[in-house]
Automatic annotation (TrEMBL), chain A:
GO terms for biological process: mitotic spindle organization. GO terms for molecular function: dynein complex binding. It comes from Oncorhynchus mykiss. The lineage of its organism: Eukaryota, Metazoa, Chordata, Craniata, Vertebrata. This is Dynactin subunit 6. The keyword Cytoplasm applies. One of its GO terms (cellular component) is kinetochore. It is found in: Chromosome, Centromere, Kinetochore; Cytoplasm, Cytoskeleton. Its main location: nucleus. Belongs to the dynactin subunits 5/6 family. Dynactin subunit 6 subfamily. Keywords: Cytoplasm, Cytoskeleton, Kinetochore. Part of the dynactin complex that activates the molecular motor dynein for ultra-processive transport along microtubules. SUPFAM superfamilies: Trimeric LpxA-like enzymes. The keyword Cytoplasm applies.
TrEMBL record, chain B:
Keywords: Acetylation, Coiled coil, Cytoplasm, Cytoskeleton, Isopeptide bond, Phosphoprotein, Ubl conjugation. Belongs to the dynactin subunit 4 family. The keyword ATP-binding does not apply. The gene is LOC110504359. This is Dynactin subunit 4. It is found in: Cytoplasm, Cell cortex; Cytoplasm, Cytoskeleton, Microtubule organizing center, Centrosome; Cytoplasm, Cytoskeleton, Stress fiber; Cytoplasm, Myofibril.
Length: 191, 445
């Protein structure tokens, strides 16, 4: 139904501030924290966000129509954007990537294009604009003004301490969006 | 101010060996010559060395010993950022009771920019936060040191030869001194201090040096010449077929920053100690005095109406300053960049002195300067805004640049007071003229 499409399905245990803007069909997993002023916009299709993610202020996760397709044209299948577990979207970043795996870090003001696929353990450095059509291999670090790359030997640690702290403190200062008890388990798409 | 906003809008002309035009924030003013100086008209001298990250100061001799590197700070071999030390807790067996484990702190180096860690190259975590990290030894150190010693001895010998020749030709009335050339030879291989150290009691004259030298037994250093090999290690068989692991290949910059090893693989990139920076002192080449900071602040530009430009002038000294603006005459050799005519106010502008307490003094009487409202737009303590009229000369698109001369009085309060027999006269004011160029931006049709 139409009304179901515009309500975000927030799993129990997720902390989503009321000041965040969530539009469209968005599913948010447990233990995910969405800061105020974060924006998750599902225009051209639904967004499924897994567990344990940290989405900071002014981050923009948007499933938008590709540039050459008008919103009203027919025959356009809505594509689902999937985001795995334990990802960090730092302040001010923008992500349009359709598939993001686990344990990735997208640093402040980074800009991900729609055709990127992040596997796991990737770090997109601050202010790096990456708009290629490729699968980023595991544990890749993209940094610097020239978007240099290198491969790490270990993946970034999950921000469990930070998540626990925020889940305790944020409700003291902000109102939270209502969670929905989902009977069907929200399976975060892996890889 | 020019360093924060629009640094190249206002340029001052410096009469040095070359005619340099640059913004005031990059210029210096010599109090003794009363002239503007740019970085090219002064001599730079090294004052001291310091580390840019821990700000540790060290004298030049110590810096030379440490090869101009800081002892505590490291650079990331991947992106050349400063490395920071991070700690983790690892379970380690207690020394008393091996069966129990306690959490011990282990330290590793990490780069915040590219996420390189010391564990990437296999460096073990250290138990102390600083001082535990060593740079790997250069395998050629011994050979290099031996070569250096040999060449130092050679330089000594050459110097003695030259001195002997000089002595033979010496006229009795010429003073005995180190010639410039011998000093250069001595310095060639860093020998200077060693020479003086070897003869602690003797006076430093070439004659005395000679006689003592022959008495000392010189250690003969023999070096083996470098051997040219016929056979070279063959390339591995799969050299052409093995797929390249691109993340493992080091860039030229990463390689050359480690001249000892120049590793081709990223897993051999070890961190190096941070390079020291210097603090330099500037000395005016003409009067040999150390320079002081510039006097005038540059102006800010507001294009308000069509051809009238509002300029602000700020007076940084505490005394009243009189400023006259004069347009450049026809055929002025310094006026090469202007593309528009400018009409500057003909009357003299008076700027009040800088008074730090004026902002807080509400009962202060307003300054009574009787400004002409056509010329002076506003006046606020030591600032004044005035109008100039600009008439662009060329019609094509381009930047509008005007030039004129500023003439102002300057009292050198820091100059040494000359003792005079008469009663103390106030410090004499001198009049300085500067050639100024203003870049007003592109012409809009």
């Amino acid at each position: 139904t139409n009304s179901a499409k515009n309500v975000a399905k927030i799993a129990a245990g997720a902390v989503v501030c009321v000041e965040s803007e969530i539009r469209g069909e968005v599913t948010i997993g447990a233990r995910t924290v969405v800061h105020p002023k974060a924006r998750i916009i599902a225009e051209a299709g639904p967004i499924v966000i897994g567990e344990g993610n940290l989405i900071e202020e002014q981050a923009l996760i948007i499933n938008s129509y590709p540039e050459n397709i008008a919103p009203d044209s027919e025959g356009v299948e809505p594509k689902t954007m999937t985001i795995g577990i334990n990802n960090v979207f730092e302040v001010g970043c923008m992500s349009q990537a359709l598939k993001i795996g686990d344990n990735n870090v997208i640093e402040s003001k980074a800009d991900l294009g729609r055709n990127m696929i992040l596997t796991s353990g990737c770090i997109i450095g601050a202010c790096c604009q990456v708009n290629t059509c490729e699968v980023i291999p595991e544990n890749t670090v993209i940094f610097g003004s020239g978007c240099q790359r290198r491969v790490q030997t270990e993946r970034p640690q999950p921000q469990t301490l930070q998540l626990d702290f925020l889940m305790k403190i944020l409700p003291n200062y902000h109102h939270m969006k209502k969670t929905v008890k989902t009977t069907s388990a929200v399976t975060p798409a892996k890889n | 101010m020019a360093s924060l906003l629009q640094p190249d809008r206002v340029l001052y002309l410096v009469h040095g060996e070359k005619k340099i035009r640059s913004s005031l924030s990059t210029l210096y003013f010599c109090r003794y010559c009363s002239e503007l100086r740019s970085l090219e008209c002064v001599s730079h001298e090294v004052d001291s060395h310091y580390c840019p990250s821990c700000l540790e100061n060290m004298p030049s001799a110590e810096a030379k010993l440490k090869k101009n590197r800081c002892a505590n700070c490291f650079d990331c071999p991947c992106c050349m950022h400063t490395l920071s030390t991070r700690a983790t807790n690892i379970p380690a067996p207690l020394p008393d009771d091996p069966s129990k484990t306690a959490m011990k702190k282990a330290y590793y180096l990490a780069c915040g920019f590219c996420r390189w860690t010391s564990r990437d190259v296999g460096m073990a975590d250290k138990s102390v936060a600083s001082g535990g990290w060593q740079e790997p030894d250069n395998p050629h150190t011994q050979r290099i040191n031996k070569l250096i010693e040999y060449y130092q001895q050679l330089a000594q010998r050459e110097k003695l030869e030259r001195d002997r020749k000089k002595l033979a030709r010496r006229r009795p009335y010429m003073p005995l001194a180190f010639s410039q050339h011998t000093i250069h030879v001595v310095e060639k291989y860093g020998l200077g201090t060693r020479l003086q150290r070897q003869r602690p009691g003797a006076p430093i004259t070439s004659l005395a040096g000679l006689s003592l030298k022959e008495g000392e037994d010189q250690k003969e250093i023999n070096i083996e010449p470098a051997q040219a090999l016929d056979e070279v290690e063959p390339l591995p068989e799969d050299y052409y077929t093995r797929p390249i692991n691109l993340p493992e290949v080091t860039s030229l910059r990463q390689r050359l920053l480690q001249p000892d090893f120049q590793p081709a693989g990223a897993s051999q990139l070890h961190p190096k100690h941070k390079h020291l920076l210097i603090k330099r002192s500037l000395r005016c080449r003409k009067c040999e005095h150390n320079l002081s900071k510039p006097e005038f602040n540059p102006t800010s530009i507001n294009i308000s109406s069509e051809c009238q430009v509002l300029l602000t002038l700020t007076n940084p000294v505490e005394s009243i300053t009189h400023v006259t603006l004069v347009g450049c005459e026809e055929g002025d050799p310094e006026d090469i960049n202007s593309t528009a005519k400018v009409m500057v106010p003909t009357k003299e502008l008076v700027l009040a002195g800088k008074d730090a307490a004026a902002d807080y003094d509400e009962l202060a009487e307003p300054q009574d300067f009787q400004d002409d409202p056509d010329v002076v737009a506003f006046r606020k303590s030591n600032k004044i805004g005035f109008f100039i009229k600009v008439v662009p000369q060329r019609e094509e698109d381009g930047d509008v640049t005007v030039s004129f001369k500023i003439r102002h009085d300057f009292r050198n309060l820091a100059a040494p007071i000359r003792p005079s027999e008469e009663d103390d006269a106030p410090t004499e004011a001198i009049w300085l003229t500067h050639h100024v160029e203003l870049s007003l931006g592109p012409l809009v049709a």
